[in-house]
């Protein structure tokens, strides 16, 4: 149980939260404060803040799943700034100049993104630029972004993305930040990404299993009502890496060694609070999990069957959620007359 966090152990809580989520349109652009900031915020305002914990999280795709997470390398963003007139207008001429000159730096990235988000809050005219670029994107496709053959190939497909974001939230300047500054991950079912505490992200399209450290702290910056206090804290605290390689946030997965029939995949998160298991059974197939030395929660995503833990047997069908205590073997069996069973099990040990 050494990976259970102190907070969780002291309060007798699970260290993680676990849910399914369907994004029919973009969810708010946000960060979850890192531990120190969460503690400060909670001290300042214990009435209004849910808790003092950080909240790194993963999204595991159930359908094709699109998510914005962290920033593209700054050199790639610079290339977009050079090509896209509207982006320079939104940044402001001086800011755009500053952004393009000299060494890449976290300060430059933070400053550019913060100013766009602040304009989103208080500059009505800027919203018209989002709407007009979205129109242009729909009419011309990627040519609207100066993409032409090899020129701007990193931005291929982004005209569609920008148009979709404007359809979701007309005139929201978050569209500029997500489209041109951030990585867009397009995950297939069974693939997952992780977002570290204070990492910028917005889930965009599709269904996922989301698992996170046990916290409800969030600072939103676009695609919803934004409070100025939250935006100030967001702008001061989001991580601003300038050289993150694409795909850095994909979560590695391997066969779970303690699954006796080989029907379980384990996702190795970079966090202390939890790892995730995905169990896929065909009709009448069985998987035995040897004991896990910490508490776990599982969710049946599809199909039907049963689970046996010690003397207890539980019928399973889509939507069932159950807790398995530490140190227990669990035997999952899919019904013979159904299509099989898909289960997600999140654990800490
Ligand atoms: Zn989040």
Summarize the structure.
The protein has 349 residues and is an alpha+beta fold. Strands 9, 10, 11, 12, 13, 14, 15, 16 and 17 form a 9-stranded antiparallel sheet that branches. Strands 1, 3, 4, 5, 6 and 7 form a 6-stranded antiparallel sheet that branches.
Structural overview:
The chain is an alpha+beta fold and 349 residues long. The chain folds into two domains: 6-237, Jelly Rolls; 253-347, Jelly Rolls, CATH 2.60.120. The strands form three sheets. Strands 9, 10, 11, 12, 13, 14, 15, 16 and 17 form a nine-stranded antiparallel β-sheet that branches. Strands 1, 3, 4, 5, 6 and 7 form a six-stranded antiparallel β-sheet that branches. It has a two-stranded antiparallel sheet with strand order 2-8. Residues 1-5 have low confidence and may be disordered. It has helices at 6-11, 35-44, 74-83, 85-91, 93-100, 106-122, 124-140, 158-168, 174-181, 228-237, and strands at 16-23, 29-31, 57-61, 65-71, 182-187, 192-195, 201-213, 219-222, 253-255, 264-267, 275-281, 286-289, 296-309, 312-317, 321-324, 330-334, 341-347. The structure holds zinc ion. The site of zinc ion (ZN) has 4 residues, from loops. Zinc ion binds at residues 30, 32, 57, 201.
Layout of SSEs?
Elements: H1 6-11, E1 16-23, E2 29-31, H2 35-44, E3 57-61, E4 65-71, H3 74-83, H4 85-91, H5 93-100, H6 106-122, H7 124-140, H8 158-168, H9 174-181, E5 182-187, E6 192-195, E7 201-213, E8 219-222, H10 228-237, E9 253-255, E10 264-267, E11 275-281, E12 286-289, E13 296-309, E14 312-317, E15 321-324, E16 330-334, E17 341-347
Antiparallel strand pairs: 1-7, 2-8, 3-6, 3-7, 4-5, 4-7, 9-10, 10-11, 11-17, 12-16, 13-14, 13-15, 13-16, 13-17
Helix pairs in contact: 4-5, 5-6, 6-9, 6-10, 7-8, 8-9
